[in-house]
């Protein structure tokens, strides 16, 4: 009988972990893996003729062959959050080759029912990828403690649930620093989500730290908490534009939220970037096509989904996971909405 080559075989021969093998072969963006390591893994995989065996992996752990993608949002907000589309493509690219299907599950944060336990105990899904967990989601922590296979996109402080995320503080620092470098000192913020989400608190913290570093006063009247939708951006920007004095720039910590904010500027005859410079976050596909094209922080959404799915498959197959905490890198994409250097 011919022995099937596994990811563990490739990892052992290359002198790396199975997680590294998965990330290299799936070409996950944002990982700090050296070119030497990547080349070695690819060469070993080729020499061993390694190919993922979806049927074997399915038989090894699959019960329903369904993986749930849970968004801790109301359905209308979940479907409005445009960056999730790229995340889903990344997840699907991994789970399909492993014999699984994807079930999309919007789950309102206020839903206090045992939704996770029902999903798993009633065998609707074999594992869960949870995007945007709230910091007080104790039912999710309990489900993992009881043996559920779970990976987070985002994190719950103090829990040991494996997660993949971006450096939200660093990304917000990049965005705010760009506005400071252009000469702005009056900088407002509209966050991506309410303050019970770890990502929104981190993006606010990155903004706050840059202001402090540059000895710029944080004006509480210019702080607004978005809610992942264009409508929340429209409402926040409308309130901001009704206040005096106005800021010269706004960091909007979600491109989806920024779409509504841009519309509010248009209705109020506020020219972007001449009257108000704007920087977003996420780099969704639409951000380059709005008027003006949106300067934004690129979030590797496809790689985020791909990485989360890879970690979950390893859990389902009882494979060794090198790290339960993976942070992907972000970068600034400069377009027209942030404008040029302002006059002293």
Automatic annotation (TrEMBL):
Q: CDD domains under this entry?
A: HTH_LacI, PBP1_LacI_sugar_binding-like
Annotated keywords: DNA-binding, Transcription, Transcription regulation
Q: Where is the HTH lacI-type domain?
A: 5-61
- GO MF terms, alphabetically ordered: DNA-binding transcription factor activity; transcription cis-regulatory region binding
In terms of PROSITE patterns, this protein maps to: HTH_LACI_2 (PS50932)
Under which name does UniProt file this protein? LacI family transcriptional regulator
């Amino acid at each position: 009988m011919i022995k099937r080559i596994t990811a563990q075989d490739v990892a052992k021969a290359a002198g790396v972990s199975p997680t590294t093998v998965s990330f290299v072969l799936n070409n996950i963006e944002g990982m700090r893996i050296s070119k030497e390591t990547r080349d070695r893994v690819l060469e070993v995989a080729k020499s061993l003729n390694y190919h993922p065996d979806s049927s074997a992996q399915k038989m090894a752990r699959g019960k329903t062959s369904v993986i749930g993608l849970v968004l801790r949002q109301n359905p209308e907000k979940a479907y409005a959050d445009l960056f999730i589309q790229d995340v889903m493509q990344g997840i699907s690219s991994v789970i399909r080759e492993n014999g699984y299907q994807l079930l999309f599950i919007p789950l309102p944060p206020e839903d206090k029912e045992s939704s996770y336990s029902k999903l798993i105990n009633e065998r609707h899904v074999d594992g869960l990828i949870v995007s945007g967990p709230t910091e007080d989601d104790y039912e999710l922590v309990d489900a993992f403690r009881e043996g559920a296979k779970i990976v987070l996109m985002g994190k719950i402080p103090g829990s040991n649930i494996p997660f993949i995320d971006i450096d939200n503080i660093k990304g917000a620092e990049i965005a705010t620093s760009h506005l400071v470098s252009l000469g702005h000192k009056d900088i407002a913020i509209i966050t991506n989500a309410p303050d019970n989400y770890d990502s929104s608190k981190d993006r606010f913290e990155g903004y706050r730290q840059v202001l402090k570093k540059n000895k710029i006063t944080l004006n509480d009247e210019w702080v607004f908490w978005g809610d992942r939708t264009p409508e929340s951006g429209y409402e926040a920007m409308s309130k901001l534009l009704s206040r005096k004095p106005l800021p010269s720039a706004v960091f909007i910590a979600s491109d989806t939220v920024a779409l509504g904010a841009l519309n509010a500027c248009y209705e109020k005859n506020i020219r972007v970037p001449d009257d108000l410079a704007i920087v977003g976050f996420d780099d969704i596909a639409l951000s380059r096509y709005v008027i003006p094209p949106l300067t934004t922080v690129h979030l590797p959404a496809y790689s985020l989904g791909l990485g989360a799915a890879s970690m979950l498959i390893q859990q389902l197959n009882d494979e060794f996971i090198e790290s339960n905490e993976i942070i992907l890198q972000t970068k600034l994409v400069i377009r027209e909405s942030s404008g040029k250097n302002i006059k002293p």
